[in-house]
TrEMBL record:
It comes from Alectura lathami. One of its GO terms (molecular function) is ligand-gated sodium channel activity. GO terms for cellular component: apical plasma membrane; cytoplasmic vesicle membrane; sodium channel complex. The keyword Ion transport applies. Belongs to the amiloride-sensitive sodium channel (TC 1.A.6) family. SCNN1B subfamily. This is Amiloride-sensitive sodium channel subunit beta. Its main location: membrane. The keyword Ion transport applies.
Length: 340
């Protein structure tokens, strides 16, 4: 790993500017900008600090599973830290968004953040009220929420998990010669001596010679859904592709039979309406032909009924008017033929 001995020169600290003594450090990727205030850790003076590192790579799924970005190109905030040849990060996006709000509201940029082109940093001569404007903007929850909504997490990220342990350094038995050697190496002089409150020893190493990858995956996709449905259907009902085809055939046959029944019902309804037009016996074929060819022809019974006249009784067959059919009484012998 990496071993360091740091001289923090605590005796040179300026009061009211720093109230903590020690060293602040962080591990980050080569192309990511280090934000020590948010992501750094402290190492206490007068101790030997050992830091074990584990590396985790996170691979998040993008839209529609999560709201992350690959390189920040779809984020509506210009990354002001890109001029340092660094990659996109959510911390860089938040600071760039705050600087843009500072320029838009206060009219100048804060000295702690990069500046876009054509803008100057705030100063008391040109911007006498910039400090109050910065304080109000810094404490505004509304403007802070705007930046939080704009900025997105990165889909691919590397995290360093550190395990920290500390011990007093140097020990009482070895502090004399260690301070003497360190003083000689610092200024090439043995007249300068160091004390415990001004030095820190760091040991940084990897706990494992590998890294862990944590990737997201969809719990259910269309392929998995169809596969699960097919498996459950086959397990519980013994179904297969042939069963599905049979079900489809049953549905088609049912629809076809329904259509045929509807057509038959419509035809029967038309026939009932046609029979309902005639009160008595339906007209003969000759009458229908006559009615079709002669527009003035009407059925006799229908015409009489339409005029409101009573139909005459049907005449009976007259008896035959022949003498030979007349019944005569029998005559005895000797009857006069003239009386006949």
């Amino acid at each position: 790993g990496l071993k360091l001995i740091l001289d923090i020169s605590q005796q040179d600290y300026i009061p009211y500017l720093s109230s903590a003594a020690g060293a602040r450090l962080m591990l980050h990727q080569q192309k990511s900008f280090p934000f020590l205030k948010d992501q750094g850790i402290y190492a206490m003076a007068g101790t030997e600090t050992s830091i074990g590192v584990l590396v985790d790579e996170l691979e998040r799924m993008g839209y529609p599973y999560s709201d992350c970005t690959m390189n920040g190109s779809d984020v509506p905030v210009k990354n002001l830290y890109s001029e340092y040849n660094t990659s996109y990060s959510i911390q860089a996006c938040l600071r760039s968004c705050f600087q843009n709000q500072m320029i838009e509201i206060c009219g100048c940029g804060h000295y702690m953040f990069p500046l876009p082109e054509g803008v100057t940093y705030c100063n008391n001569d040109d911007n006498p009220g910039w400090a109050y404007c910065y304080s109000s903007l810094r404490s505004s929850i509304e403007h802070r929420q705007i930046c939080i909504d704009f900025c997105k997490e990165t889909c691919n990220d590397t995290q360093y998990k550190m395990t920290i342990s500390m011990a007093d350094w140097p020990s009482e038995a070895s502090e004399d010669w260690i301070f003497h050697i360190l003083s000689y190496e610092r200024d090439m002089s043995t007249n300068v001596t160091l004390d415990r409150n001004g030095i820190i020893k760091l040991n940084i190493y990897f706990q494992e010679y590998n890294y862990r990858t944590i990737s997201e995956s969809a719990s259910t996709t269309i392929v998995w859904l169809l596969s699960s449905l097919g498996g459950q259907f086959g397990f519980w009902m013994g179904g297969s592709v042939l069963c599905l085809i049979e079900f489809g055939e049953i549905i088609i046959d049912s629809l076809w039979i329904t259509v045929i029944n509807i057509i038959s019902w419509c035809k029967g309804l038309k026939q009932k309406r046609a029979r309902a037009q005639y009160a008595d016996a339906p007209p003969t074929v000759s009458e229908l032909v006559e009615a079709h060819t002669n527009l003035g022809f009407q059925h006799e019974e229908v015409g009489a009924a339409a005029r409101g006249e009573a139909l005459p009784p049907e005449p009976g067959t007259p008896p035959p008017n022949y003498d030979s059919l007349r019944v005569r009484p029998p005559h005895g012998p000797g009857t006069d033929s003239d009386a006949e």
